[in-house]
Amino acid sequence: MKKEAVLNSNQHCQTRIRAISDAMEVLSGKWKFHILGTLTRGDKLRFMDLLREVEGIGTKMLSKELQDLEMNHLISRTVLNTKPVTVEYEITEFGKSLIPIIDEIAKWGIAYRAFIYGKTD
Amino acid sequence: MKKEAVLNSNQHCQTRIRAISDAMEVLSGKWKFHILGTLTRGDKLRFMDLLREVEGIGTKMLSKELQDLEMNHLISRTVLNTKPVTVEYEITEFGKSLIPIIDEIAKWGIAYRAFIYGKTD
DNA sequence: CTCATTAGTTTCCTAAATGAAACTACTTTC
DNA sequence: GAAAGTAGTTTCATTTAGGAAACTAATGAG
Fold first, then answer.
1. pLDDT of residue A73
2. What is the pLDDT of residues B52-82, one digit of tens each?
3. CA to C1' distance (Å), from B59 to C17
4. Which secondary-structure segment (H or E) carries A76?
5. Tens-digit pLDDT profile for residues A14-27
6. In a mutagenesis test of the A interface, which of B3, B13, B16 is the best target, namely the one with the most A β-carbons within 10 Å?
7. Is strand D less than 7 A from the beta carbon of B58?
8. CA quadruple B48, B49, B53, B54: dihedral sign
């Protein structure tokens, strides 16, 4: 008789596993947390502001990541009727529900570095 | 005069940003949270157990991810002196420090699905 | 001697992520 | 009219992630 999964087979675990997959799909990538973190620090940032704040990102990735985040309702995009058009990006209320995750990850990253290198800074 | 980053330039933010990068480097990928989550449910699982429990993973990815996790001190690997050798994987104490992150992500994933599809299940 | 089991490794391949640089399009300033 | 600033898009290339299938190596059962 063939052995099957036992630990992960119950409904509660399946729901959890799917939830983790869902979340990772939305949040994976090199830049999402940095963009979201920046938007939690200063609300209403323009494209060029974000390009300056998020160190290392290029226009293509920033543009693509902003689109992804907007599609997933985590940020909003507002075109302003200014002389050269400006666009404001802002974290949504739903996007703010990610703050606990971002905080936990930042906290853990600091603990990890301390554990590996034996220093807090 | 050229504009520079202001929001993310202070020391506190830089530390946070580096922490998030560190954490993401260790935790990114399709399988790490699923493997770790499984190891939190049942401690001391063997390679074939994990292969069965983590639905969809293949031997190559499982082997590679287990090596990564072990290198980062999140799990331990113990070779047992049995007839066909068996290997036990277990989450470390330090690895358990990830439980709050995994819980937050699972919780958020459920909320995300509810927000998008309007249902809890 | 053959088959099954354990724990992987190796090879080959495709798809996705990321990046640098150039380009578009519009407006204002000099 | 040229330069600079807005917000991107497009092209081309490289790197990384992920996966299927075959293979290794050791042991034990029949």
1. 98
2. 999 999 999 999 999 999 999 999 999 998 8
3. 23
4. strand A75-80
5. 999 999 999 999 99
6. B16
7. yes
8. negative
Interface residue A104 vs chain B (CB under 8 A):
yes
Which of A49, A101, A113, A115 is most worth mutating to test chain B (most B CB atoms within 10 A of its CB)?
A101
pLDDT, tens digit (0-9, with 9 covering 90-100), for A95-121? 999 999 999 999 999 999 999 988 555
Select from 1.10.10.10, 3.40.50.360, 3.40.1190.20, 2.40.50.140 the CATH code of B29-117.
1.10.10.10
Q: Answer yes or no: do A101 and B101 touch at CB < 8 A.
A: yes
Å from A95 (CA) to D23 (C1')? 48
- Please state, in angstroms and rounded to a whole number, the distance separating the CA atoms of residues B34 and A18: 10
Q: Is residue B22 within 8 angstroms of chain A, CB to CB? A: yes
CATH topology of domain A30-117: Arc Repressor Mutant, subunit A (1.10.10)
Which tokens is A109 given?
A: 């990253």
Site of tokens 């909003």: A76
Averaged over successive runs of 10 residues, the pLDDT of chain B (121 residues) comes to 83 97 97 98 94 97 98 97 92 98 98 86 58
Residue with tokens 């504009």: B3
Which residues lie across from B45 on neighbouring strands?
A: B89
Contact B112, A26 (CB under 8 A): yes
Q: How far apart are CA B94 and CA B74, in angstroms?
A: 6
